[in-house]
Amino acid sequence: MAYVEWGYPESVPSEGRRMIKLVLSDMDGTLVPFGHSSVSRRTLSAIAELRDAGIEFGPASGREPFDLMGYFDNDQTMGDTGIFANGKLVRLDGKDIFRLPLERAGVQALVDFSARRDDLATLVCSREQARRGLPAFQVFGATRERFAKYADDPETLSIPMTVGEELPAEDILTVDLICLSRDPARFAKVRDEVEAELPQFDFVSPGPGCLDVLPHGWNKGTAVEVLSDAMGVDVEQIAFFGDSENDLALMARVPNSFCVGNGTEDAQRAARYHIGDSADDSVAIVMESLAKNHGRIVVPPETSRD
Questions:
Q1: Dihedral, CA of residue 20, residue 36, residue 91 and residue 256, to nearest 10
Q2: For residue range 76-125, what is the model confidence (pLDDT) as tens digits?
């Protein structure tokens, strides 16, 4: 079977029809199947092939760099360039080029919001705790027992954490509001309530029962402008892979967006290209093709869903 190739839409001028120079990928549910603790060997090899072909790779994740290294066999270069903490941190060549911490008073208000409700908890990431060899995530507003019941659910996040008493003194980049209830109607109600009470934040859901916290008006889609400007590449030269709500803004900004087969309906609608499931190494297959074709988008039929 021949390879399937897509050209640029007529709306993209000929001078913008350029080869891919940067590949960005969401992590959980996209590059890493849910329930897995690392990327596949094929994915690591595909990233190396991209770099050998002169195409940069970087995560575009809700996680911070230190929290991603375990996924990549502790290869520190995987945190050198990319979009982290859902856009609140942008890095290029090993240096922070943009940081937008969450407003501390607002984070405390979110902790108070969750503490007033029996089925909510707030997760706060502390880099200082991680440097001390402690779990990076602290949970506020719920008992250890109640949160442990949620965290042990295989359908949800399961990460080491401690019960927090005070917010970390450092700048806070990563915060999640967790709905311990598995009831979608309850989750929707909580979302409406927190959006009304804390308008200084935006909330996006990377998965069931979880809301990532962002400064109002800022997201992966706005952050990619910072990275593309710093690298001197156009958004037409960026390929992005994602799967869920926190990827929609970046999919809308980057013309060459891909959604994995296990992605949400909204992500499927937002993406330009559709490929197989995360668990089938679909992202790696496309990255191999990008490297082989020197940045030209040629989607192998084994993973194309278009």
A1: 20
A2: 999 999 999 999 999 999 999 999 999 999 999 999 999 999 889 999 99
Structure tokens at 49: 């092939």
In the sheet with 82-84, reading across from the earlier edge strand, the strands are: 82-84, 89-92, 95-99
In the chain, where does DSSP find H-type helix?
41-52, 104-115, 127-131, 144-151, 184-197, 220-231, 248-253, 265-270, 282-292
DSSP 156: S
- Spell out the domains of the chain, with CATH numbers in brackets: 4-100+219-299 (3.40.50.1000), 104-215 (3.30.1240.10)
pLDDT in tens, 291-306: 999 999 999 999 999 9
- What strands, in cross-sheet order, belong to the sheet with 137-140? 161-163, 137-140, 120-125, 175-179, 210-215, 201-207
